[in-house]
Write a structure and sequence with these properties.
By secondary structure, the protein is an alpha+beta fold. It contains one helix and four strands. Bound molecules: zinc ion.
């Protein structure tokens, strides 16, 4: 039987839009990665932000980052 306590919430990672944005910024700053979607096929890609162009490995579409919208915005 699952035991519940008054402070169970302290063990829960509550993740909403703000947390997603803040954490993605931290990942971007530390690793130069950003999570985007392919403007052609819609697949989710983890982009290296230090490079000028992105090529989607799923469909072959290649373009500038502006054609790959952020997954979280
Ligand atoms: Zn694609």
């Amino acid at each position: 039987m699952k035991k519940t306590s008054w402070n169970e919430k302290e063990h829960t990672d509550t993740v909403g839009l703000n947390e997603n944005i803040v954490r993605l910024r931290e990942i971007n700053r530390a690793l130069f990665y950003n999570v985007v979607t392919c403007g052609e096929c819609g697949e989710i890609l983890i982009q290296n932000t230090s490079l000028e162009n992105i090529e989607c490995g799923f469909c072959g579409f290649e373009s500038e980052p502006c054609d790959f919208p952020d997954l979280i915005h």
